[in-house]
Write a structure and sequence with these properties.
Number of strands: 16
CATH architecture of the largest domain: 3-Layer(aba) Sandwich
CATH superfamily of the largest domain: Alpha/Beta hydrolase fold, catalytic domain
Radius of gyration: 23 Å
Distance between the termini: 60 Å
Oligomer: single chain
Largest sheet: 8 strands, mixed
Helix content: 25-40%
Order of helices and strands: EEEHEHHEHEEHEHEEEEHEHEHEEH
Strand order of the largest sheet: 1-2-4-3-5-6-7-8
CATH class of the largest domain: Alpha Beta
Structural class: alpha/beta
CATH topology of the largest domain: Rossmann fold
Strand content: 15-25%
C-alpha cells in the first residue's frame, strides 16, 4: 500500500492545438449483457489503447462530446463513449446513476477489455466516477482483475455521500475507502470540489490507490462539454485531449497490486434532494470567527454585529446559482431594517480586480467581503456553492442552507421574521 506524500503530477500545457470541430460521425454498436440489457456505444478511432468513457450524470452533449473524443482518437486512442441514460431509458439528472445496476457496468468493463495486448482505461465525469469505481470494485472481486486494465481518469469526480446536513463535515461514499487502482484526477479550479481535493486524494491513497492530480485553472466543472462554456473554457477544452493523452501514458506506467478488498458494489447509494426551507443548525456548534475586508478595504468583523441577525452568504463569481441569487439577497435586505437584519457575502478564492469587474455587471446591494485564499471553506464547513448561514443576535448560527434560493420568497422571509421577533423578545 502506498503512503503519503501523495503523488502529484503537473502536466505542462503544450502549444499544440487540436481542432474540436468538423469531425466525422462515430460508429455505433450495442454490447448485450447477460441481463439482456444492451449498452449503446459510440466508437471513435481504431488504433491504440482503448478508453471506456462514462459521461456525467447529466448525460451527453452530442456536439461537444463527439468533437472532444474525435480529437482524442487522433492521438492514437480507440474511444468507446457509453450512453447509459439512453440505454436504460433514464432521464439525465443528479440521481440518475443510482438507478443503473452496478453489475451491468462491471460486465461492460469485462467485455470492453481488448482481445490483443492493448490496455483498457476508464474516463469518467462527476458522479460517473462513483458508478465507475463501484463497477470496478465488483469486477475486481468477481474476476480478479486483469493486467490489461490500466487505470481511471476522473474529471471533477463527485463522491459526496448525500446532500450535507448543516454543521457536518464532507462525507464521502464508502467506495473511496475501498479502491485500489491507478487514478488520475483532473479538477477544475472554479469548483467547490477544488477545496476538498487534497482530502479526497488522501483517502484514495490510504486505501491503496496510486493517485495523480492536475488542477485546470480558469474553468468550472463540466467546462469541456457545457453548452454555456466561456471563451477561456472553450480554449481549455481544446487542450484537454493532449492532457488526457499524457495522463493515460502516465497511468500506463503505474503499478498497483490490489489486495483482497471488500465487495461493496451492492451497497445502495443515493443522491438526496435539496430541502425546501432553511435548515436548523445543530446546537453546540461553535460559530467560526470571521474578519475580512470588503472590496473598498473596509474591515468587517462578525462579532461587531451582535444584537442583529446576520445572513452570511458564501459564493463565487464562477458559480451560476450564486450569481442568480444575488438580486434576491438584495431584495431580502430591503425587506428588513439593517438595525435588525444584515446581509453580508463572502467571495471565495478570487482576486479583488475580478470581483470588482463582475460587480460592475451584477451589482450587489450588500457588502461583498474578500477571501482570496479560501481559508473560510474548511472553517465554516462549506461543502456546496453557494452556502448561507443565518446567525442570531447572540452570534450563534441558527439556520443554514446549502445551495441557491430566492431569498425573498414568502416562506424564507417568514422564517427570518420569526427569528428576528423571537430574539427581540
Amino acid at each position: 500500500m502506498l503512503t503519503r506524500p501523495i503523488l502529484v503530477f503537473l502536466l505542462s500545457l503544450s502549444c499544440i492545438q487540436l481542432s474540436l470541430a468538423n469531425n466525422s460521425e462515430p460508429n455505433t454498436f450495442d454490447l448485450t449483457l447477460t441481463s439482456d440489457e444492451a449498452i449503446s456505444i459510440k466508437k471513435f478511432g481504431n488504433d491504440g489503447d482503448r478508453i471506456l468513457w462514462i459521461p456525467s450524470e447529466h448525460g451527453i452533449n452530442k456536439t461537444r462530446h463527439f468533437d472532444l473524443l474525435s480529437a482524442l482518437s487522433k492521438l492514437q486512442f480507440e474511444v468507446w463513449l457509453t450512453e447509459p441514460h439512453e440505454s436504460y431509458f433514464i432521464p439525465p439528472g443528479r440521481s440518475s446513476y443510482t438507478k443503473i445496476p452496478v453489475n451491468d457496468i462491471s460486465e461492460l468493463i469485462q467485455k470492453s477489455l481488448p482481445e490483443d495486448n492493448r490496455k483498457l482505461f476508464i474516463v469518467s465525469t462527476g458522479r460517473g466516477a462513483v458508478l465507475s469505481l463501484l463497477a470496478l470494485n465488483h469486477w475486481q472481486n468477481k474476476t480478479g482483475g486483469s493486467e490489461k486494465f490500466g487505470g481511471v481518469i476522473m474529471l471533477h469526480p463527485n463522491f459526496q455521500a448525500t446532500t450535507p446536513t448543516p454543521g457536518t463535515a464532507m462525507e464521502y461514499l464508502p467506495i473511496v475507502d475501498s479502491t485500489q487502482l491507478p487514478i488520475f484526477i483532473m479538477q477544475p479550479k472554479m469548483s467547490n470540489k477544488y477545496w476538498y481535493l487534497n482530502d479526497l486524494v488522501a483517502k484514495l491513497t490510504d486505501s491503496g490507490s496510486q493517485v495523480y492530480t492536475q488542477i485546470i485553472d480558469q474553468v468550472g466543472d463540466g467546462y469541456h462539454v457545457r453548452s454555456d462554456a466561456t471563451e477561456i473554457e472553450n480554449q481549455k477544452a481544446k487542450e484537454l485531449p493532449l492532457q488526457l493523452s499524457k495522463a493515460l501514458h502516465l497511468l500506463a506506467q503505474a503499478k498497483v497490486t490490489p489486495q483482497k478488498q471488500q465487495d461493496i458494489s451492492k451497497q445502495p447509494w443515493q443522491v438526496t434532494s435539496l430541502p425546501e426551507s432553511l435548515q436548523p443548525y445543530p446546537e453546540g456548534n461553535t460559530t467560526p470567527a470571521l474578519e475580512l475586508h470588503d472590496i473598498k478595504g473596509k474591515k468587517y468583523k462578525l462579532d461587531d454585529f451582535r444584537g442583529k441577525v446576520v445572513v452570511l452568504n458564501f459564493w463565487a463569481t464562477w458559480c451560476p446559482p450564486c450569481v442568480k441569487e444575488i438580486p434576491s439577497l438584495g431584495r431580502l435586505q430591503k425587506t428588513f431594517s439593517k438595525k435588525e437584519l444584515l446581509v453580508l457575502s463572502v467571495d471565495i478564492g478570487e482576486n479583488k480586480k475580478d470581483i470588482e469587474t463582475f460587480l460592475e455587471q451584477v451589482p450587489a446591494d450588500f457588502p461583498v467581503l474578500l477571501n482570496p485564499d479560501g481559508s473560510t471553506v474548511k472553517q465554516w464547513k462549506i461543502i456546496a456553492f453557494p452556502t448561507t448561514f443565518v446567525i442570531n443576535q447572540q452570534g450563534t448560527i441558527e439556520l443554514a442552507y446549502y445551495g441557491a434560493r430566492e431569498w425573498d420568497e414568502p416562506n424564507i422571509v417568514a422564517q427570518l421574521q420569526s427569528l428576528v421577533k423571537r430574539l427581540q423578545k
